[in-house]
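Changelog-adjacent note: as of this version, every example in the card shows the full chain rather than a window. The one below runs 453 residues end to end.
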Amino acid sequence: MTPTHQKRGRLVPRAAHCARLVPALVGLSMAAGGCSRVIDAVQVQSQDCRTRPSDPDCAPTPWPIPGHSANSDPWIVSHHDVITQMSPRVLVLNFSNNATSDAALQTAERQVAAIAEGSRYHGYSDPKAPVFLSYQIVRVVDLTDHGSPPPGWTFPSSSLLPVTPSGSFDPMALFTSPQLSKAYGFTDPTTPSRSLTMCELFEQGVINEVWVEEGESGTRRLPLNLERKQLYDANNVAVLDTFKPCVGGDTDCLQDLICGVTVRMAHLDPARGPGCDLEVRGWGIEGMWDALPAFAPTAATFLNRDFETRYKVQFDGWENLCDSTGVTTCVSYPTPTTATGSYPNGTPWTINPFIPACGSTDFPPNARTRWDWTNNTNQVESRCEHFGLGDGPNGADTLELYTSDKIATADQAFPDCGGGWQIYWRQSLPGLNNQAKTPDGAPMRNWWPLLFY
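Full-length structure tokens:
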């Protein structure tokens, strides 16, 4: 099955109104163009709890906590390894004239449950594995036409849906429109006569993510995953005032947005199953490593995106080799440890032994094409369930044969777009209490807090 959701072309957003935050030698509050945030002294990174485990401040803790609720807060970095659960706050914007607020809430709650299940490290083999991501729905904002669209209106979304002059969805207007800011309904506590902007909601930690339901297809639809992410250096220290604007994909960007913290946005699909919205949110996981170079090499291995180095072939992963139709076979598996195919010029290649670490949202370990989530014919040896554990012969990761039979139960519970694979893939990511190690022998850290760095 080929998904109907596809990554779209480049956005051409309007100029943002949020003020760029600048270094400060003392804590201060800045406001320009309607954005404000209290900035600690030059955003100095807090001392890592790994170096002071007996400090009472480093006791196991959930997130957010009072005073530390915003994305990109240095507290998240310093307390990364003692966070036991994250409860990010999500704002749901319903532009779909075909969905009531209650219906939009139900769709959002369904997605919350799917994300929670996917955050249970090795939940497929450990029924007691705890949920790490427990999203909290702050509010569902009704932005529909309330049953009275303009005469002749044919779109499934309301007339309030912000679009560019060319008719494409305009995500920047979510941050710049006074009308929309008022509709969100969050009053500025310092100036009750005005409403907080979307930028301020992120910067003040009122929300950590936005989900948009509009029921559209084509250019009027929100790009399926958008993130403008704080950049960190090789030592995992935030690079001041520097962000990666295209985490959701090479062409889906928030390059003109200027907010002081990581901004995360995703599509909420009222028509497709929960697996589809898991898939598109997974694109953000796959795309965030350029902003997190300290973690990037290990992530590239897990995602099977280091083949050029690992196997000396002319591509880093199946994404570089397979076309976007999801129809043409680009990889074959003569044996469980052999992969074969041809380059675009027809030259054959073979990888033997082929031992995939795990995979990506669109490519399970035995994928023959893009979106080959239901292949129960080709068995391929995989390290998904043992990634970094070194629990096999000579300290290697134990291998297990993978076919789609492994995900059949999850696929029924979270259907569409390979939902079973999306759950299995997420539960295989290094999560809470994992015992894995990096290639240099260091403990593998929980990857989920990185979403909100």
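Structural remarks: Residues 24 and 42 are 5 Å apart (CA to CA).
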